[in-house]
């Protein structure tokens, strides 16, 4: 670089063509920028480096001499031009950085306290432990297949294909709450049933149900706060009762929901459990009119007092009994739609709807085959409760979108991890 | 200078400019939705429901746009650009085109590999383009994020370069693609 060039000039030129300047070949461009040419120090350099392009491009290129003449009309503007030149440069940088900042802001980069799907699943892993390849909650499970036979009664409420008279194939997964895929079965552990109805035409309806009549948490924050309060203490390895008491004091709706749950003692097994969809949804009919609904699966298998099974059981006793009974005869549930009335809360799964709401039996779910997770596609299905066919829409329950987001996060994490065998397999059960 | 040069030659054709600004609006929207939805609980579902059909729309628009570009006359580069800058600009344009085609396909493929229904609107949905394979899903899901940030960086470079040429070099680069008609000076 010629030593005579001032820092300013060098800086300006660097912005356009540093390499040319330092290199030996300095004849690739023409200078037509008046801002650049306002800098007297640069002119001799420019003159040496100037190049008149050929061909079509030259039509648009003012001759170097011409520019210099125009430049001459603004004598003594050098310093001013310099300032405005850098002002424009700074403006460019500010705008670009501003756009980048707005993008990162949208992505939550500047709000480290914000509750995100990733932080939610992190908390599940802190509380439950981390078991790669398995669901972050309801990790222990067994997969089933069967079909849903619609009786057509649901068609007046929803235009969904699944409610037309007829049969659709179903795959599903029974599970127990918690993150440890080898935990011992307990009667009091929450039982889950994820289902996927494959509708004709390629639509799907997925639902994730549990055997609790109401959900203990009204929104994602309450759910998260409960997880934090359940974190095992470093020393005792047990949750701190004081933290849980504080959580319940701050979330009276959870205390009310738990009181309702207490009145519904768990049944003896998966096969005679009632499964609840918990959240309100909207059924949309052919005219576009919608009705708030909730759904439950009512077992055809007779209820049995749970205590009859005793307590000293094999660690897989609930799953083994399910496998045994499904191998003996198909298991059936009635899909019951509860029709909400104006004023029934649709945004709070902790509150049951009043007694006496219309209930419509829309068809029968039959599960007639069972297999372990390794061989079933159900292991690798995310039973996202917002995979819905046309005719079923989400309500304003804030947990629905949050569950969809957190399920997706858990699914993505386990998808890429090595898969280990499940603790439950039908082969261990004598036929 | 420039006397007798038709306006059309200084600018991209009106159709090309329409496609450009349509793509710009769609891509900025989908990038914003994408980065926001993965960090959101309350709006996740609503945003994903927009993100999916928007991605497919971009795929369609970009393919049509690329074909249209093939049959259109491009205006010359500003004279201020060296041959090297011109090849960098052309390569970055191709890179953007490639990203805009690959990214929706990765999204579509990843939903296929996860066995999600690829719902566009109501009961309208797309067929899967890959078999159900969650390991494949995991790779494509990661790729979708990496490509999204690459796309955003490529947009920033493109945007920054045009701003630089227009504000600092002041060579009228923006007017080549301006949504309005720019007459020769």
Oligomer: heterodimer
Q: Using DSSP, what is the number of strands of chain B? A: 2
Classify the helix fraction of chain B into a percent range: 55-70%
Which sheet architecture does the biggest sheet of chain B show? 2 strands, antiparallel
Please identify the top-level CATH class of the largest domain in chain A: Mainly Beta
**Structural class based on helices, strands and sheet pairing of chain A:** alpha+beta
Q: How would you sum up this structure, described in words?
A:
The complex is a heterodimer of chains A (431) and B (185). The radius of gyration of chain A is 34 Å and the shape is globular. Chain A has eleven helices and ten strands. With 431 residues, chain A is α+β, with helices and mostly antiparallel strands. In chain A, strands 1, 2, 3, 4, 5, 6, 7, 8, 9 and 10 form a ten-stranded antiparallel β-sheet that branches. In chain A, strand 6 (281-284) and strand 7 form a beta hairpin. Chain A has two domains: 7-91, no CATH class; 117-428, Catalase core domain (Catalase HpII,  Chain A, domain 1, Beta Barrel), CATH 2.40.180.10. With 185 residues, chain B is mainly alpha-helical. Chain B has one domain (9-174). A two-stranded antiparallel sheet of chain B has the order 1-2. In chain B, a hairpin with a 2-residue loop joins strand 1 and strand 2 (124-126). In chain B, helix 2 (14-37) runs antiparallel to helix 3 (44-70) and helix 4 (83-113) runs antiparallel to helix 5 (134-169). The longest helix of chain B is centred in the last third of the chain and has 36 residues, at 134-169. The relative contact order of chain B is 0.15. The chains are: A alpha+beta (431), B mainly alpha (185). At the A-B interface, helix 1, helix 2, helix 5, helix 6 and helix 11 of A face helix 2, helix 3, helix 4 and helix 5 of B.
């Amino acid at each position: 670089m010629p030593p005579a060039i001032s820092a300013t000039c060098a800086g300006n030129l660097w912005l356009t063509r540093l390499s040319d300047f330092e290199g030996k070949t300095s004849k690739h461009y023409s200078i037509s920028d008046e801002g650049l040419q306002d800098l007297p120090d640069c002119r001799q350099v420019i003159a040496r480096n100037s190049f008149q392009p050929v061909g079509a491009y030259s039509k648009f290129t003012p001759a170097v001499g011409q520019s210099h003449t125009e430049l001459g009309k603004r004598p003594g503007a050098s310093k001013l031009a310099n300032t405005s030149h850098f002002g424009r440069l700074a403006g460019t940088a500010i705008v670009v950085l501003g756009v980048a900042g707005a993008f990162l802001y949208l992505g939550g980069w500047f709000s480290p306290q914000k509750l995100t799907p990733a932080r939610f699943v992190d908390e599940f892993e802190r509380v439950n432990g981390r078991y790669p390849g398995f669901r972050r909650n309801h990790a222990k499970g067994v997969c089933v297949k069967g079909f849903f036979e619609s009786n057509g009664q649901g068609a007046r409420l929803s235009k969904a294909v699944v409610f037309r008279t007829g049969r659709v194939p179903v795959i599903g997964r029974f599970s127990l709450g918690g993150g440890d895929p080898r935990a011992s079965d307990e009667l009091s552990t929450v039982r889950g049933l994820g289902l996927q109805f494959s509708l004709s035409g390629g639509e799907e309806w997925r639902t994730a149900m549990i055997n609790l009549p109401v959900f203990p948490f009204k929104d994602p924050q309450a759910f998260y706060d409960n997880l934090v309060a359940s974190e095992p203490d470093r020393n005792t390895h047990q949750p701190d009762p004081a933290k849980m008491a504080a959580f319940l004091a701050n979330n009276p709706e959870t205390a009310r929901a738990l009181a309702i749950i207490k009145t519904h003692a768990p049944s003896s097994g998966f096969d005679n459990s009632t499964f609840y969809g918990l959240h309100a949804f909207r059924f949309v009919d052919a005219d576009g009119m919608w009705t708030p609904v909730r759904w439950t699966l009512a077992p055809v298998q007779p209820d049995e007092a749970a205590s009859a099974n005793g307590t000293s059981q094999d660690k897989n006793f609930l799953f083994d009994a399910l496998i045994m009974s499904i191998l003996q005869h198909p298991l059936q549930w009635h899909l019951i739609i509860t029709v909400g009335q104006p004023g029934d809360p649709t945004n709070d799964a902790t509150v049951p709807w009043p007694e006496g709401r219309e209930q419509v039996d829309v068809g029968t779910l039959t599960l007639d085959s069972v297999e372990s997770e390794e061989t079933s596609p159900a292991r690798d299905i995310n039973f996202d409760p917002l995979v819905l066919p046309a005719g079923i829409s989400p309500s304003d329950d804030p947990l629905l979108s949050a569950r969809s987001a957190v399920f997706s996060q858990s699914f993505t994490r386990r998808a890429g991890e090595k898969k280990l065998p499940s603790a439950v397999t039908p082969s261990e059960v004598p036929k | 200078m420039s006397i007798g040069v038709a306006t059309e030659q200084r600018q991209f054709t009106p159709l090309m400019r329409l496609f450009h600004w349509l793509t710009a609006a769609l891509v900025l929207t989908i990038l914003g939705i994408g980065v926001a939805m993965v960090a959101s609980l309350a709006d996740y579902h609503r945003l994903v429901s927009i993100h999916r059909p928007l991605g497919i729309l971009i795929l369609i628009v970009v393919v049509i746009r690329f074909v249209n570009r093939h049959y259109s006359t491009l205006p010359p580069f500003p004279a201020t650009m060296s041959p090297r800058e011109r090849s960098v600009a052309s390569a970055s344009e191709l890179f953007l085109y490639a990203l805009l085609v690959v990214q929706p396909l990765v999204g579509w493929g990843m939903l296929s590999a996860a066995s999600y229904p690829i719902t566009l609107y109501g009961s309208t949905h797309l067929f899967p383009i890959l078999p159900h394979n969650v390991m494949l899903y995991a790779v494509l899901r990661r790729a979708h994020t990496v490509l999204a940030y690459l796309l955003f960086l490529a947009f920033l470079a493109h945007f920054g370069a045009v701003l630089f040429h227009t504000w600092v070099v002041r060579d009228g680069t923006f007017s080549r693609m301006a949504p309005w008609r720019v007459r020769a000076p």
